[in-house]
Design brief:
alpha/beta, Nucleotidyltransferase, domain 5, seven-stranded mixed sheet, five-stranded mixed sheet, 17 helices, globular, binds adenosine-5'-diphosphate
Length: 493
Protein backbone atom coordinates (compact mmCIF):
# COMPACT_ATOMS: atom_id res chain seq x y z
CA UNK A 1 0.00 0.00 0.00
CA UNK A 2 1.23 3.53 -0.78
CA UNK A 3 1.49 5.18 2.59
CA UNK A 4 4.82 6.97 2.79
CA UNK A 5 5.62 10.55 1.91
CA UNK A 6 8.78 11.35 -0.01
CA UNK A 7 10.21 14.78 0.76
CA UNK A 8 12.70 16.40 -1.60
CA UNK A 9 14.73 19.06 0.22
CA UNK A 10 16.78 20.94 -2.33
CA UNK A 11 19.12 23.17 -0.26
CA UNK A 12 21.88 25.64 -1.06
CA UNK A 13 24.74 23.20 -0.64
CA UNK A 14 23.09 19.77 -0.79
CA UNK A 15 20.05 17.81 -1.89
CA UNK A 16 18.19 15.46 0.40
CA UNK A 17 15.48 12.91 -0.10
CA UNK A 18 13.69 11.71 3.03
CA UNK A 19 11.01 9.09 3.34
CA UNK A 20 8.57 9.90 6.15
CA UNK A 21 5.59 8.13 7.62
CA UNK A 22 2.48 10.10 8.58
CA UNK A 23 3.83 10.85 12.09
CA UNK A 24 7.00 12.48 10.78
CA UNK A 25 9.21 9.52 11.62
CA UNK A 26 12.05 9.06 9.15
CA UNK A 27 12.36 5.72 7.36
CA UNK A 28 15.38 6.66 5.30
CA UNK A 29 17.41 9.71 4.32
CA UNK A 30 19.88 10.28 1.50
CA UNK A 31 21.91 13.44 1.17
CA UNK A 32 24.44 14.56 -1.40
CA UNK A 33 26.35 17.80 -1.86
CA UNK A 34 26.73 19.48 -5.22
CA UNK A 35 29.23 21.99 -6.62
CA UNK A 36 29.31 25.66 -5.72
CA UNK A 37 30.71 28.02 -8.35
CA UNK A 38 32.18 31.44 -7.55
CA UNK A 39 33.16 32.86 -10.95
CA UNK A 40 33.85 36.38 -9.61
CA UNK A 41 33.98 37.96 -6.13
CA UNK A 42 30.43 38.09 -4.77
CA UNK A 43 29.02 35.86 -7.54
CA UNK A 44 27.51 32.46 -6.71
CA UNK A 45 26.22 29.96 -9.28
CA UNK A 46 24.93 26.37 -9.37
CA UNK A 47 24.59 24.01 -12.33
CA UNK A 48 20.83 23.30 -12.66
CA UNK A 49 21.54 19.97 -14.41
CA UNK A 50 23.75 18.91 -11.49
CA UNK A 51 21.05 19.91 -9.02
CA UNK A 52 18.62 17.70 -10.93
CA UNK A 53 20.94 14.70 -11.19
CA UNK A 54 21.95 15.03 -7.52
CA UNK A 55 18.30 15.16 -6.48
CA UNK A 56 17.50 12.08 -8.60
CA UNK A 57 20.46 10.20 -7.05
CA UNK A 58 19.15 11.05 -3.59
CA UNK A 59 15.71 9.68 -4.47
CA UNK A 60 17.06 6.31 -5.60
CA UNK A 61 19.50 6.06 -2.67
CA UNK A 62 16.74 6.89 -0.21
CA UNK A 63 14.43 4.19 -1.58
CA UNK A 64 17.28 1.70 -1.59
CA UNK A 65 18.09 2.46 2.06
CA UNK A 66 14.42 2.07 2.99
CA UNK A 67 14.32 -1.23 1.13
CA UNK A 68 11.26 -0.16 -0.78
CA UNK A 69 10.29 1.07 -4.23
CA UNK A 70 8.14 3.81 -5.74
CA UNK A 71 4.95 1.85 -5.15
CA UNK A 72 5.13 2.63 -1.41
CA UNK A 73 5.07 6.38 -2.04
CA UNK A 74 1.68 8.02 -1.70
CA UNK A 75 2.86 11.50 -2.59
CA UNK A 76 5.85 13.82 -2.89
CA UNK A 77 6.55 17.15 -1.18
CA UNK A 78 9.19 19.57 -2.43
CA UNK A 79 11.01 22.27 -0.49
CA UNK A 80 13.84 24.31 -1.88
CA UNK A 81 16.43 27.06 -1.54
CA UNK A 82 14.44 30.17 -2.36
CA UNK A 83 15.08 33.01 -4.85
CA UNK A 84 17.71 31.05 -6.82
CA UNK A 85 16.91 31.62 -10.48
CA UNK A 86 16.94 29.26 -13.47
CA UNK A 87 16.08 30.26 -17.05
CA UNK A 88 15.83 27.57 -19.70
CA UNK A 89 14.81 26.78 -23.26
CA UNK A 90 11.56 24.80 -23.18
CA UNK A 91 12.31 23.01 -26.46
CA UNK A 92 15.70 21.60 -25.42
CA UNK A 93 15.20 21.66 -21.63
CA UNK A 94 18.68 23.21 -21.33
CA UNK A 95 19.34 26.19 -19.05
CA UNK A 96 20.64 29.19 -20.99
CA UNK A 97 22.84 30.15 -18.03
CA UNK A 98 23.85 28.62 -14.67
CA UNK A 99 21.42 29.08 -11.78
CA UNK A 100 22.06 32.46 -10.10
CA UNK A 101 22.01 31.68 -6.40
CA UNK A 102 20.21 33.76 -3.74
CA UNK A 103 23.58 34.69 -2.21
CA UNK A 104 24.88 36.15 -5.50
CA UNK A 105 25.42 39.93 -5.33
CA UNK A 106 25.90 40.62 -9.07
CA UNK A 107 22.65 42.55 -9.28
CA UNK A 108 23.49 44.85 -6.38
CA UNK A 109 23.83 47.98 -8.52
CA UNK A 110 20.53 47.38 -10.28
CA UNK A 111 18.86 46.70 -6.93
CA UNK A 112 20.32 49.88 -5.45
CA UNK A 113 18.76 51.82 -8.33
CA UNK A 114 15.42 50.10 -7.65
CA UNK A 115 15.59 51.36 -4.06
CA UNK A 116 14.36 54.68 -5.52
CA UNK A 117 11.12 52.82 -6.17
CA UNK A 118 11.14 51.01 -2.84
CA UNK A 119 7.62 52.14 -2.02
CA UNK A 120 6.19 50.51 -5.15
CA UNK A 121 8.01 47.20 -4.60
CA UNK A 122 7.33 47.17 -0.85
CA UNK A 123 3.64 47.89 -1.28
CA UNK A 124 3.11 45.29 -3.97
CA UNK A 125 5.53 42.51 -3.01
CA UNK A 126 6.32 43.05 0.69
CA UNK A 127 10.05 42.97 -0.15
CA UNK A 128 12.89 45.47 -0.02
CA UNK A 129 14.53 45.76 -3.50
CA UNK A 130 17.71 43.70 -3.10
CA UNK A 131 20.07 41.50 -5.11
CA UNK A 132 18.80 38.63 -2.92
CA UNK A 133 15.54 38.25 -4.88
CA UNK A 134 14.85 36.61 -8.26
CA UNK A 135 13.51 39.52 -10.33
CA UNK A 136 16.83 41.35 -10.76
CA UNK A 137 18.54 38.00 -11.47
CA UNK A 138 16.10 37.25 -14.33
CA UNK A 139 16.70 40.71 -15.75
CA UNK A 140 20.46 40.14 -15.59
CA UNK A 141 20.14 36.93 -17.63
CA UNK A 142 17.90 38.61 -20.23
CA UNK A 143 20.35 41.52 -20.53
CA UNK A 144 23.58 39.51 -20.56
CA UNK A 145 22.98 36.14 -22.22
CA UNK A 146 22.89 36.70 -26.00
CA UNK A 147 20.48 33.87 -26.90
CA UNK A 148 18.05 34.68 -24.04
CA UNK A 149 16.34 37.69 -25.61
CA UNK A 150 15.71 35.90 -28.93
CA UNK A 151 14.32 32.84 -27.15
CA UNK A 152 12.12 35.08 -25.02
CA UNK A 153 10.79 36.80 -28.16
CA UNK A 154 9.84 33.43 -29.64
CA UNK A 155 8.13 32.41 -26.41
CA UNK A 156 10.51 29.51 -25.74
CA UNK A 157 12.15 30.83 -22.60
CA UNK A 158 10.97 29.68 -19.18
CA UNK A 159 11.83 31.02 -15.73
CA UNK A 160 11.64 29.10 -12.52
CA UNK A 161 12.81 29.12 -8.94
CA UNK A 162 14.25 25.72 -8.00
CA UNK A 163 10.84 24.21 -7.15
CA UNK A 164 9.65 25.03 -10.67
CA UNK A 165 12.83 23.69 -12.27
CA UNK A 166 12.50 20.39 -10.37
CA UNK A 167 8.77 20.01 -11.05
CA UNK A 168 9.23 20.71 -14.77
CA UNK A 169 11.94 18.06 -15.01
CA UNK A 170 10.41 15.44 -12.71
CA UNK A 171 7.14 15.60 -14.65
CA UNK A 172 8.94 15.29 -17.99
CA UNK A 173 8.25 18.92 -18.95
CA UNK A 174 4.50 18.61 -18.39
CA UNK A 175 4.16 21.21 -15.63
CA UNK A 176 5.59 24.71 -15.51
CA UNK A 177 4.31 25.90 -12.16
CA UNK A 178 5.13 27.24 -8.72
CA UNK A 179 3.18 28.29 -5.62
CA UNK A 180 2.88 31.48 -3.56
CA UNK A 181 5.63 30.96 -0.93
CA UNK A 182 8.25 30.70 -3.69
CA UNK A 183 6.59 33.23 -6.00
CA UNK A 184 6.60 35.81 -3.20
CA UNK A 185 10.43 35.81 -3.22
CA UNK A 186 10.78 37.10 -6.78
CA UNK A 187 9.92 40.81 -6.30
CA UNK A 188 7.36 40.20 -9.09
CA UNK A 189 4.46 38.63 -7.19
CA UNK A 190 1.61 40.76 -5.92
CA UNK A 191 0.80 39.85 -2.31
CA UNK A 192 -2.79 41.00 -2.55
CA UNK A 193 -3.89 39.66 -5.96
CA UNK A 194 -1.73 36.50 -5.53
CA UNK A 195 -0.62 36.77 -9.14
CA UNK A 196 2.36 38.04 -11.15
CA UNK A 197 2.30 41.82 -11.19
CA UNK A 198 2.31 43.09 -14.78
CA UNK A 199 3.58 46.54 -13.83
CA UNK A 200 6.62 45.07 -12.05
CA UNK A 201 7.29 42.58 -14.86
CA UNK A 202 7.25 45.48 -17.29
CA UNK A 203 9.46 47.57 -15.00
CA UNK A 204 12.14 44.85 -15.15
CA UNK A 205 11.51 43.98 -18.82
CA UNK A 206 10.48 40.38 -18.07
CA UNK A 207 7.94 38.80 -20.46
CA UNK A 208 4.85 37.38 -18.73
CA UNK A 209 5.13 34.23 -20.90
CA UNK A 210 8.30 33.19 -19.07
CA UNK A 211 6.54 33.01 -15.73
CA UNK A 212 5.22 29.75 -14.28
CA UNK A 213 1.57 29.22 -13.35
CA UNK A 214 1.02 29.89 -9.64
CA UNK A 215 -0.95 27.06 -7.99
CA UNK A 216 -1.90 26.63 -4.34
CA UNK A 217 0.95 25.34 -2.15
CA UNK A 218 -1.00 22.07 -1.99
CA UNK A 219 -1.89 22.16 -5.68
CA UNK A 220 -1.74 19.53 -8.39
CA UNK A 221 1.91 19.74 -9.41
CA UNK A 222 1.65 16.69 -11.65
CA UNK A 223 2.87 13.09 -11.65
CA UNK A 224 6.52 12.20 -11.73
CA UNK A 225 7.56 10.62 -15.01
CA UNK A 226 8.49 6.94 -14.77
CA UNK A 227 11.23 7.45 -17.36
CA UNK A 228 12.91 10.13 -15.32
CA UNK A 229 12.25 9.25 -11.68
CA UNK A 230 11.69 5.51 -12.03
CA UNK A 231 8.13 5.60 -10.69
CA UNK A 232 4.95 7.63 -10.89
CA UNK A 233 3.79 9.54 -7.82
CA UNK A 234 1.86 12.80 -7.44
CA UNK A 235 3.63 15.96 -6.25
CA UNK A 236 1.06 17.43 -3.87
CA UNK A 237 2.89 19.95 -1.70
CA UNK A 238 5.54 22.60 -2.40
CA UNK A 239 6.97 25.31 -0.11
CA UNK A 240 10.10 27.46 -0.02
CA UNK A 241 12.50 26.23 2.68
CA UNK A 242 11.75 28.79 5.41
CA UNK A 243 7.99 28.59 4.97
CA UNK A 244 8.30 24.79 4.99
CA UNK A 245 10.08 24.99 8.36
CA UNK A 246 7.26 27.24 9.66
CA UNK A 247 4.77 24.59 8.53
CA UNK A 248 6.92 21.71 9.86
CA UNK A 249 7.13 23.46 13.23
CA UNK A 250 3.31 23.54 13.18
CA UNK A 251 3.14 27.35 13.53
CA UNK A 252 -0.43 27.37 12.24
CA UNK A 253 -1.87 30.02 14.52
CA UNK A 254 -1.33 33.75 14.13
CA UNK A 255 1.55 34.88 16.36
CA UNK A 256 3.41 31.56 16.33
CA UNK A 257 7.05 31.89 15.27
CA UNK A 258 10.05 29.80 14.33
CA UNK A 259 13.69 30.52 13.71
CA UNK A 260 16.01 28.32 11.67
CA UNK A 261 19.73 28.69 12.39
CA UNK A 262 21.72 27.29 9.48
CA UNK A 263 24.14 29.10 7.19
CA UNK A 264 21.87 32.12 7.65
CA UNK A 265 19.14 32.72 10.21
CA UNK A 266 15.47 33.11 9.38
CA UNK A 267 12.85 34.19 11.89
CA UNK A 268 9.29 33.88 10.57
CA UNK A 269 6.12 34.71 12.41
CA UNK A 270 2.68 33.70 11.19
CA UNK A 271 0.68 36.95 10.85
CA UNK A 272 -2.57 35.36 9.71
CA UNK A 273 -4.64 36.03 6.62
CA UNK A 274 -3.99 39.77 6.21
CA UNK A 275 -0.63 41.04 5.02
CA UNK A 276 0.97 44.10 6.53
CA UNK A 277 4.36 45.78 6.37
CA UNK A 278 6.90 46.36 9.12
CA UNK A 279 9.90 48.56 8.26
CA UNK A 280 13.08 46.52 7.82
CA UNK A 281 11.28 43.18 7.69
CA UNK A 282 9.90 41.23 4.75
CA UNK A 283 6.26 40.37 4.33
CA UNK A 284 5.91 37.09 2.53
CA UNK A 285 3.43 34.34 1.75
CA UNK A 286 3.62 31.54 4.30
CA UNK A 287 1.35 29.21 2.32
CA UNK A 288 -1.92 29.10 0.44
CA UNK A 289 -4.00 25.99 0.84
CA UNK A 290 -6.60 25.08 -1.74
CA UNK A 291 -9.94 26.76 -1.02
CA UNK A 292 -8.60 28.66 1.98
CA UNK A 293 -7.32 32.21 2.37
CA UNK A 294 -3.58 32.79 2.01
CA UNK A 295 -1.54 32.87 5.22
CA UNK A 296 1.17 35.55 5.50
CA UNK A 297 4.41 35.69 7.46
CA UNK A 298 6.70 38.43 8.60
CA UNK A 299 10.31 37.46 8.05
CA UNK A 300 13.67 38.55 9.34
CA UNK A 301 16.38 37.27 6.98
CA UNK A 302 19.87 37.17 8.49
CA UNK A 303 22.55 36.35 5.93
CA UNK A 304 25.32 35.13 8.26
CA UNK A 305 24.46 32.97 11.30
CA UNK A 306 26.15 29.53 11.40
CA UNK A 307 28.31 30.73 8.51
CA UNK A 308 30.26 32.86 11.02
CA UNK A 309 31.25 29.63 12.79
CA UNK A 310 32.32 28.17 9.44
CA UNK A 311 34.43 31.29 8.90
CA UNK A 312 36.14 30.81 12.29
CA UNK A 313 36.93 27.27 11.15
CA UNK A 314 37.84 27.81 7.49
CA UNK A 315 38.82 31.48 7.34
CA UNK A 316 40.68 31.92 10.63
CA UNK A 317 41.40 28.29 11.50
CA UNK A 318 40.81 28.91 15.22
CA UNK A 319 38.40 25.99 15.67
CA UNK A 320 38.48 22.53 14.17
CA UNK A 321 34.76 21.95 13.93
CA UNK A 322 31.54 23.76 14.71
CA UNK A 323 30.65 21.44 17.59
CA UNK A 324 33.75 22.57 19.47
CA UNK A 325 32.48 26.14 19.47
CA UNK A 326 30.25 25.44 22.49
CA UNK A 327 32.95 24.23 24.89
CA UNK A 328 35.35 26.96 23.75
CA UNK A 329 32.72 29.69 24.21
CA UNK A 330 31.73 28.50 27.67
CA UNK A 331 35.36 28.30 28.80
CA UNK A 332 35.01 32.06 29.49
CA UNK A 333 32.33 33.47 31.78
CA UNK A 334 31.39 36.35 29.50
CA UNK A 335 32.35 37.99 26.23
CA UNK A 336 34.40 40.51 28.29
CA UNK A 337 33.33 43.27 25.93
CA UNK A 338 34.28 41.52 22.67
CA UNK A 339 31.65 41.74 19.92
CA UNK A 340 31.74 40.37 16.39
CA UNK A 341 29.32 41.88 13.89
CA UNK A 342 29.38 39.26 11.11
CA UNK A 343 28.40 41.59 8.25
CA UNK A 344 30.53 39.49 5.90
CA UNK A 345 28.13 40.07 2.98
CA UNK A 346 26.54 43.24 4.36
CA UNK A 347 23.52 43.03 6.67
CA UNK A 348 20.01 41.77 5.90
CA UNK A 349 17.03 42.36 8.19
CA UNK A 350 16.35 44.81 9.63
CA UNK A 351 19.15 46.95 8.16
CA UNK A 352 19.33 45.95 4.47
CA UNK A 353 22.73 47.45 3.91
CA UNK A 354 25.14 45.77 1.52
CA UNK A 355 27.96 48.26 2.01
CA UNK A 356 28.82 47.43 5.65
CA UNK A 357 31.47 44.83 6.42
CA UNK A 358 32.25 42.62 9.41
CA UNK A 359 33.85 44.16 12.48
CA UNK A 360 35.29 42.89 15.74
CA UNK A 361 35.35 45.38 18.61
CA UNK A 362 36.41 45.50 22.25
CA UNK A 363 39.70 43.60 21.99
CA UNK A 364 42.18 43.81 24.88
CA UNK A 365 45.48 42.09 25.64
CA UNK A 366 43.42 39.49 27.49
CA UNK A 367 41.20 38.62 24.52
CA UNK A 368 41.63 35.17 23.04
CA UNK A 369 39.93 32.81 20.66
CA UNK A 370 37.32 31.87 23.26
CA UNK A 371 36.05 35.47 23.29
CA UNK A 372 35.87 35.53 19.52
CA UNK A 373 34.07 32.18 19.31
CA UNK A 374 31.66 33.30 22.00
CA UNK A 375 31.11 36.59 20.17
CA UNK A 376 30.25 34.71 16.95
CA UNK A 377 27.68 32.55 18.75
CA UNK A 378 26.23 35.51 20.61
CA UNK A 379 25.98 37.37 17.28
CA UNK A 380 23.48 34.81 15.96
CA UNK A 381 21.24 35.55 18.92
CA UNK A 382 21.74 39.35 18.80
CA UNK A 383 20.78 39.49 15.13
CA UNK A 384 17.60 37.54 15.85
CA UNK A 385 16.94 39.89 18.79
CA UNK A 386 17.28 42.88 16.42
CA UNK A 387 14.53 41.37 14.26
CA UNK A 388 12.35 40.57 17.29
CA UNK A 389 12.85 44.14 18.55
CA UNK A 390 11.56 45.53 15.23
CA UNK A 391 8.56 43.22 15.46
CA UNK A 392 7.85 44.35 19.01
CA UNK A 393 8.05 48.02 18.01
CA UNK A 394 5.20 47.24 15.61
CA UNK A 395 3.04 45.33 18.05
CA UNK A 396 4.17 41.78 17.32
CA UNK A 397 5.43 40.22 20.54
CA UNK A 398 6.80 36.69 20.47
CA UNK A 399 5.20 34.46 23.10
CA UNK A 400 7.71 31.70 22.47
CA UNK A 401 10.08 30.72 19.68
CA UNK A 402 10.38 27.30 18.06
CA UNK A 403 13.86 26.68 16.70
CA UNK A 404 15.60 24.27 14.35
CA UNK A 405 18.65 24.09 12.09
CA UNK A 406 22.23 22.85 12.55
CA UNK A 407 23.39 25.60 14.92
CA UNK A 408 20.64 24.81 17.46
CA UNK A 409 22.77 21.84 18.48
CA UNK A 410 24.68 24.53 20.37
CA UNK A 411 22.92 24.76 23.72
CA UNK A 412 24.89 27.80 24.80
CA UNK A 413 23.60 29.74 21.79
CA UNK A 414 19.99 28.62 22.26
CA UNK A 415 20.06 29.47 25.99
CA UNK A 416 21.59 32.86 25.20
CA UNK A 417 18.78 33.44 22.71
CA UNK A 418 16.17 32.70 25.34
CA UNK A 419 17.89 35.04 27.82
CA UNK A 420 18.03 37.84 25.26
CA UNK A 421 14.44 37.53 24.06
CA UNK A 422 13.01 36.83 27.51
CA UNK A 423 10.79 34.04 26.14
CA UNK A 424 10.94 30.25 26.02
CA UNK A 425 12.93 28.92 23.09
CA UNK A 426 11.82 25.45 22.16
CA UNK A 427 13.97 23.11 20.16
CA UNK A 428 11.93 20.75 18.04
CA UNK A 429 12.63 17.02 18.17
CA UNK A 430 12.09 17.00 14.40
CA UNK A 431 15.63 17.74 13.21
CA UNK A 432 14.40 17.89 9.62
CA UNK A 433 11.70 20.51 10.22
CA UNK A 434 12.04 21.89 6.67
CA UNK A 435 11.74 18.55 4.88
CA UNK A 436 8.96 17.49 7.22
CA UNK A 437 7.04 20.70 6.49
CA UNK A 438 6.90 19.91 2.77
CA UNK A 439 6.09 16.27 3.50
CA UNK A 440 3.33 17.17 5.94
CA UNK A 441 1.73 19.54 3.44
CA UNK A 442 1.91 16.96 0.65
CA UNK A 443 0.56 14.24 2.96
CA UNK A 444 -2.33 16.44 4.01
CA UNK A 445 -3.36 16.98 0.41
CA UNK A 446 -2.99 13.30 -0.49
CA UNK A 447 -5.06 12.19 2.51
CA UNK A 448 -2.16 10.39 4.26
CA UNK A 449 -2.53 12.95 7.05
CA UNK A 450 -6.05 13.84 8.17
CA UNK A 451 -5.75 17.45 9.31
CA UNK A 452 -3.57 20.35 10.41
CA UNK A 453 -4.48 19.31 13.96
CA UNK A 454 -2.86 15.94 13.38
CA UNK A 455 0.37 17.69 12.30
CA UNK A 456 0.21 20.01 15.33
CA UNK A 457 -0.33 17.03 17.64
CA UNK A 458 2.59 15.07 16.21
CA UNK A 459 4.94 18.05 16.78
CA UNK A 460 7.22 17.31 19.72
CA UNK A 461 9.76 19.38 21.55
CA UNK A 462 13.21 18.09 22.33
CA UNK A 463 14.22 20.72 24.89
CA UNK A 464 12.80 23.99 26.20
CA UNK A 465 15.17 26.79 27.16
CA UNK A 466 13.71 29.41 29.52
CA UNK A 467 15.24 32.82 30.32
CA UNK A 468 17.90 32.51 33.04
CA UNK A 469 19.95 35.70 32.96
CA UNK A 470 19.37 39.38 32.25
CA UNK A 471 21.30 40.18 29.09
CA UNK A 472 20.38 43.87 28.75
CA UNK A 473 24.02 44.91 29.27
CA UNK A 474 25.27 42.48 26.62
CA UNK A 475 22.63 43.68 24.16
CA UNK A 476 23.58 47.32 24.75
CA UNK A 477 27.18 46.35 23.92
CA UNK A 478 26.02 44.73 20.68
CA UNK A 479 24.09 47.83 19.69
CA UNK A 480 27.18 49.97 20.28
CA UNK A 481 29.23 47.54 18.17
CA UNK A 482 26.65 47.81 15.38
CA UNK A 483 26.92 51.59 15.46
CA UNK A 484 30.67 51.21 15.03
CA UNK A 485 30.15 48.85 12.09
CA UNK A 486 27.95 51.39 10.32
CA UNK A 487 30.33 54.22 11.16
CA UNK A 488 33.24 52.28 9.57
CA UNK A 489 31.22 52.12 6.33
CA UNK A 490 30.23 55.78 6.61
CA UNK A 491 26.57 54.76 6.92
CA UNK A 492 24.02 56.27 9.29
CA UNK A 493 21.09 53.83 9.54
P1 LIG B 1 22.18 24.76 5.99
O1 LIG B 1 20.90 23.96 5.85
O2 LIG B 1 22.02 26.25 5.85
O3 LIG B 1 23.33 24.23 5.19
P2 LIG B 1 22.41 23.44 8.60
O4 LIG B 1 21.06 23.53 9.24
O5 LIG B 1 22.89 22.13 8.09
O6 LIG B 1 22.62 24.61 7.53
O7 LIG B 1 23.46 23.97 9.70
C1 LIG B 1 24.80 24.15 9.38
C2 LIG B 1 25.31 25.44 10.01
O8 LIG B 1 25.21 25.32 11.43
C3 LIG B 1 26.76 25.69 9.68
O9 LIG B 1 26.92 27.05 9.33
C4 LIG B 1 27.51 25.39 10.98
O10 LIG B 1 28.62 26.27 11.17
C5 LIG B 1 26.46 25.61 12.04
N1 LIG B 1 26.62 24.66 13.16
C6 LIG B 1 26.49 23.33 13.13
N2 LIG B 1 26.70 22.80 14.35
C7 LIG B 1 26.96 23.85 15.18
C8 LIG B 1 27.26 23.96 16.57
N3 LIG B 1 27.32 22.89 17.38
N4 LIG B 1 27.47 25.20 17.05
C9 LIG B 1 27.39 26.28 16.27
N5 LIG B 1 27.12 26.23 14.96
C10 LIG B 1 26.91 25.03 14.42
Amino acid sequence: MSRYILSLDQGTTSCRAILFDRNGDTLALAQKEFSQHFPKPGWVEHDPMEILSTQLDCISQCLEKAGTDGSSIACIGITNQRETTVVWDCTTGKPVYPAIVWQCRRTQELSNRLRNESDLFRRKTGLVPDAYFSGPKIKWILDNVPEAAALADSGKLLFGTIDTWLIWNLTGGKKHCTEPSNASRTMLFNLETLSWDEQLLERLGIPFDMMPAVLSSDGDFGMTSKNIVGFEAPITGVLGDQQAALFGQACFRQGMAKCTYGTGGFLLVNIGTASHLVPGLLTTLAWKLDGQPAVYALEGAIFIAGAAIQWLRDGLGIIENSEQSESIATSVGSNEGVYFVPALVGLGSPWWDSSVRGTIVGLTRGSGRAHLVRAALEAMAYQVADVATKMKEHGICLEELRVDGGATRNKFMVQFQSDLLGVSVIRSSQVEATAWGAAALAGLKAGVIASLDEIAESWQHDQTFTPQEDRAGDYAGWQAALKGTFACAGVHP
